[in-house]
Amino acid sequence: MDDTRNVDDRDATPTEASETDHPASIPTFLTREEYELIGDDPDPLPKGFEVIDGGAKEAPIGNESLIESVEAPTVDEPDQTETPDEGGSPTRAVGAFISEGVGAVRAAHAAKKAHASARDRLDRISRTVSEREAELERRRDIARRFDQIVSEGADRRDAADKEASEARDLQAEAQTKIAQLKQDLQEMKDEDAQTERRLRAAVEAAEAKEASSRESSSRLKRRLDDAQRALDKAVTDQESALEAAQRAIESAAARLTTLREEFAEVQRNPSANSAAYSVRSSELELEISDAAEELRGAQDAYPVIAREVEQAVKTAEAMLAEARKPIEAAKRSHSAVTAEADEAQDALETAKGEAAERQRGLREEISIQERELKAQERREAEALEEAGDAQALIDEAIEIHDHPERTEELAREQEEDRALLSEQSTEVEHLAATERAVRERTRSSRLRFMAAIVAILLLIASIVVLGILFG
Length: 471
Hints:
Blueprint: H1 4-11, H2 14-21, H3 32-36, H4 66-71, H5 90-144, H6 146-268, H7 274-402, H8 404-470
């Protein structure tokens, strides 16, 4: 705020500075320099503008004659009833019309631009006055309440410092708890890892024992299956052997019967040839003797075969019974081993779950303490910021109290700015009136000029359209 007036003066354009220094000088929009910014400068200048070459270099005039000076650059409106000079050139008349129209448009634009520029400067001065007024009132209020502000600021600063100290103590406490909890967590992890290794080793041992028991049970089962197959084979062999022995007895008995029947038939019908009869009788006797011997041998062999195959069956049955004996014990043993492995696995899973739960609990406690640490850090930062703000207010109050001359200087600058604001307001009103006057005086010339331009454009457009249609 102290440099507002200087900055505002530096921002002002040279024309505005001239107007500030010489508020009654000729307005910038009436000078040739401003006039030439609008566009091409027709030669000659519109009537009324030739007398203002040099602009602000002319001798200043009073505020009362401002409107009169503005009224100088009038653009004469030709009498509508006047007829052109019969001896005059049409080209010259057209040139005068264009010069008059361009001059009217430029005059209105220059008046508007000068009014807008002055109003912008008025707005800047007004903002400067408002800001400086607020700053001046604030400094005066601080000067009036100096003791109160210093006392309240000191209390506020001390309370903030105490708050920051308490926050630091709580931070240290939280950091200590966090460190201890992290150490406990690490020890817990190590212990749980050791327990898990021990239980996992027990699980692996139980699983190995279960696998061995399963293999042993498989061997016993194979042995039982082998004994069962041996018994089945012994029974089958028994049946086959007895059937074969029985068939041998039956075959021998049938052959003996056949031979005996043939011998009886030979005895009943002796042949005329005694020699042939005698030979056949002898043969039959021998064959009957052999068949009888064969029958006796088959009959004697049957009980021997029966005893042998029976013994084989009994042996197979004994082997099957022997193979069955360890099966039940093996089943019980395998079930016990399987249950042991399941218990070991369950113990491992339970231990892992309990360890995870315990560790999760410690992690949650660590998270709580870390959140508390961050909260206390924020509390300390806010308290330090509060203490800094309080000290800044104290320092500012001391600076204002120790330098009342700056407040007085600010008050003087404010009075000067108010005078400048009033002066600028008057200038804005004059320029607004000037703009209205210029617009009013040049209205008909501008309208005729614009209408002529529109007519020319329409004519050109018509020619182009006709050229397209009939070309």
